[in-house]
Amino acid sequence: MRSIQRTLAVTHRVLLTIRSDRRTVALMFVVPSLLVGLFSWMFNNATVFDKVGGRLVGLFPFVVMFLAASITTLKERRSGTLERFLTTPMRRGEFIGGYALAFTVMALVQTGITLSFAIYVCGFDTKDSVWLLYMAAVINALCGMSLGLLASAFAQTEFQVIQFMPAFIFPQIILGGLFVPLTQMPDALHTISDWLPLTHSLRALVNITDGLPLADVMHEVLIVAAVCAGCLLLGSLTLRKKTA
Amino acid sequence: MSDVASFTGVSVRRGKSTVLADVNLSLPAGQIIGLLGPSGAGKSTIMRALVGVQSKVSGQVSVLGSPAGSASLATRVAYSTQASSVFDDLNVRQNLEFARTIIGADPTRIDAVLAEVGLTNVAGQKVESLSGGQRNRVSLAIAMLGSPELLILDEPTVGLDPVLRAEIWGIFRDLANAGKTLLVSSHVMDEAERCDRLIFVREGRVIADDTLANILLATQTTSAEGAFLALAKKQVD
User: Fold this and answer.
1) Which chain B residues are Cβ-neighbours of A89 within 8 angstroms?
2) CA nearest A54: which of A148, A162, A130?
3) Domain residue limits, chain A
4) CB-based contact (8 Å) between A29 and chain B?
5) B-chain residues within 8 Å CB-CB of A12?
6) Which has the least CB within 10 A, A141, A168, B92, B184?
């Protein structure tokens, strides 16, 4: 019971922190929609946009969540608040759980806005699977968050975290099948691609918009959810109470 | 008076260098103990070892009868790091409400500590908009929330003007009068006069652990600064 209270206290505090920075909130909620809008305008063709729209709705929140999660946790490691509160009854699992919950709330709102924008403004056709698409996109955003939480353990400064974007996120986008279908990639890249979490998220989304059976969608979603859980677990292990 | 904490043969290594070398200490209850020494002397390391966040500690650190860092100490000892460790983007009350839930303290403690540290009228303000002295008092208020027996405060008065420093030392005195033990670090030697007992640290070693009067007598000096210099010279010789 106490443990749940502490986890929720962390969640509440993280949400208060995010809310206090109005500009970041605006950027988080508006920018993915604008980028989706830009793509829709650029393609200028409903058939092409219907093919990639699902993946775009998942992709931008993924990137934004990665950055938001890695920078907020890094700030906590650097400001001394993490060290201080690890000497109180707060456990590191409660800390990570609280963060994950707060960013789940953010992901739900952000993905909801992006998906609504794609449907109502850009005329994206979800083939009657809007809720499934929403769930898959939210899980993708959570995957970005959990990678961000983990990445923050390996960065000493905000600059380094930003550098993790081209280092760890861009390759996943490039190899994710958005530009070149996996089957047309050289074998080595195809194999690498299969091991990247974003590939599976994007595949789940494209399977939905292609109208594939639910089992094909859930298979990919479960892989992403497993990566998410794994990163959170590893992330909590990197929160050492004792440091040099 | 009994001791609230003790170090027995404690050494700490960081990489190849030794940050603390064979430290033996005891912190008597109900006193303000000043941990004085230049930056990099090992003051923060001593404090971090006391709250169990320092890695590579050899020897024995015991706090309130348990090994340092034990779960049972989590609410009996409060710690404030050198970097104030408060949430700048929250207001004062939100900081305290978070800490209260984490520590499991009574809700009525929030208004009580706000009054004790004199922050009642800025409770709704964001910490980042406060002055340095107010910010330090937010950190102190968080430490006081759970009514801990031992408060470990790393440089709580750094960068403050003499008036604000005097105010914060007044709060420390009230806490000690209420039976709490405080370990307060500083690199400002004139804060020594405000402490009941002093620990001088230099280059990872404790060079004095006594009352100011006894240290002055032993070193034949008239100020804490002079005594520190004399002891440092003796350490070099």
Assistant:
1) 71, 74-75, 102-104
2) A130
3) 2-238
4) no
5) 98
6) A168
Of A111, A95, A27, A132, the closest CA to residue A62 belongs to: A111
Q: Is residue B206 part of a domain?
A: yes
Mean pLDDT in order along chain B per 10 residues (237 residues): 87 90 93 93 94 92 92 92 88 96 94 94 95 90 94 90 88 94 91 93 94 94 93 87
Q: Is B13 exposed, middle or buried (0-12, 13-18, 19+ CB in 10 A)?
A: middle
Rg (CA), chain A: 18
Distance from CA of A232 to the nearest CA of B (A): 21
Do B160 and B228 sit in the same domain of this protein?
A: yes
Q: For residue range B145-165, what is the model confidence (pLDDT) as tens digits? A: 999 999 999 999 887 888 888
User: Do A79 and B77 count as a contact with CB atoms less than 8 A apart?
Assistant: no
CB–CB contact A2 B56 (8 Å): no
Query: Taking the model in full, what pTM does it have?
Result: 0.89
Cα-based torsion angle of the residue sequence A108, A112, A115, A121 in order, rounded to the nearest 10 degrees? -160
Asked if the structure places residue B161 within a domain, the reply is yes
Does the beta carbon of A242 lie under 8 angstroms from any beta carbon of chain B? Answer: yes
Domain of residue B143 covers 86-147
> Does B24 share its domain with B139?
no
Domain boundary among B129, B147, B165: B147
Number of domains in chain B: 2
Residues B75-94: tens digit of each pLDDT: 999 999 887 789 999 999 99
Interface predicted TM-score (ipTM) of this complex, two decimals: 0.88
Strand ranges (DSSP E) for chain B? 3-14, 17-28, 32-36, 57-63, 66-67, 77-80, 150-153, 181-186, 197-202, 205-210
Would residue B168 count as lying in a domain?
yes
Residue range A50-61: mean pLDDT, rounded? 89
Q: Are residues B128 and B13 in the same domain?
A: no
In chain A, residues with a C-beta closer than 8 Å to the C-beta of B89 are 16-17, 20-21
Is residue B81 in a domain?
no
